[in-house]
Amino acid sequence: MQKRIHILAMGGTIAGSANDSSATTGYQAGAVGIVELMAAVPQVKEIAEVTGEQLAAIDSKDITAAEQLQLVSRVRELLLKGDVDGVVITHGTDTMEESAYLLDLVHFADKPVVITGAMRPATALSADGPLNILDAVRVAAADSARDRGVLVVLNNEIHSARLVTKMSTTAVETFQSPVGGAIGAINDGVVVFYHGAELHHLPNALSVSEKLTSQKELPYVPVLYGHSDDDGRLVKLVADEGAKGIVYAGMGNGSIPARVEAELGAAVEQGIVVIRASSSISGMVTKAEASYEEAGFIASGLLNPRKARLLLQVALVCGKSAADLRKFLA
Ligand SMILES: NC(=O)CC[C@H](N)C(=O)O
């Protein structure tokens, strides 16, 4: 019997439309609907019984917490249904790694959830969307993809949600995992896993996902981008604005300029949870200096700043402590 795969369409370039087939920028993201998207890849019928649903039609740079939570909620419903074997999500690439990571944090099932998108609009010559959809359906229907968490599939490669990031502004091969590399590929239509990424679900992911479905927003947790001569005034500003947490994208191994460190220390004393991440693309943020640990800052480990932010938001919603976060990230 064929696997049953449900596609959720969120918009993005994969659903982008331009007037000129040679245009790969300056198009309207999210303009092409799920019916048209699916019509471009009739080959999926040979792989699985595929159904589709339009959940949003947005440029993913504009995605809100409410829309991310709606996605979590719909994926949760689908995974709990007996008649769905896997879920494919088509999504804009700008925030794809964030939605993928959020879904991965609360992924409770062994059924695959695969996110894909495109770098060229649907109307472009050599549009990459149709093959990406076909590959995503192949992965979602593969027995070997079960129990691997949420996967990102583009450009014939399979990446884990935790490690993948958008590396290039415009290149088709933009999604890469700087630490660890791709975990698999789709070679000539055959799904191959090279190695398994470590699963990264929160403990009690099923109940955490249920908790998230009742939320309409997530706590205010800004990311502050570190740079030379940073005097820390933005830390004070966001603390005054009611931040519940702050992710500081420091330099190198999460280094923080002394003046910022003092402001972040004051923020921790006010009850704001601080995560130290890095603007460097590759590598892990380790505990580094003793003063950071003494101040109560949490090292982001392998998470980039935007993913660390989502983890912190979810942790705050679920009443997890800084100690829980440290344990999870260790
Ligand atoms: N290639 C893309 O999908 C980027 C287009 C758009 N900004 C989006 O993320 O939806």
Protein described:
It is a single chain. The chain is of the alpha/beta class. The chain has two domains: 3-193, 3-Layer(aba) Sandwich (Rossmann fold); 220-329, Rossmann fold (3-Layer(aba) Sandwich), CATH 3.40.50. 30% of the residues lie in helices and 20% in strands. The protein has an eight-stranded mixed beta sheet with strand order 2-1-3-4-5-6-9-10, with helices on both faces. Strands 11-12-13-14 form a four-stranded parallel beta sheet, with helices on both faces. Helix 2 packs across helix 5 (205-213). Glutamine is lined by residues 11-13, 29, 59-61, 92-94, 117, 119. Glutamine binds at residues 11-13, 29, 59-61, 92-94, 117, 119.
Task: Give the count of structural domains.
Answer: 2
- Specify the CATH homologous superfamily of the largest domain: L-asparaginase, N-terminal domain
Assign a percent range to the helix content: 25-40%
As laid out across the biggest beta sheet, the strand order is 2-1-3-4-5-6-9-10
Largest sheet: 8 strands, mixed
Count of helices?
Answer: 10
State the end-to-end CA separation. Answer: 42 Å
Number of strands: 14
Bound molecules: glutamine
Work out the strand percent: 15-25%
Just give the CATH class of the largest domain. Answer: Alpha Beta
Low-confidence stretches: none
- The average pLDDT score comes to 95
Gyration radius over CA: 20 Å
The assigned structural class equals alpha/beta
Query: Can you write the helix and strand succession as a string?
Result: EHEHEHEHEEEEEEHEHEHEHEHH
By CATH, the architecture of the largest domain is named 3-Layer(aba) Sandwich
CATH topology of the largest domain: Rossmann fold
Task: Name the overall outline.
Answer: globular
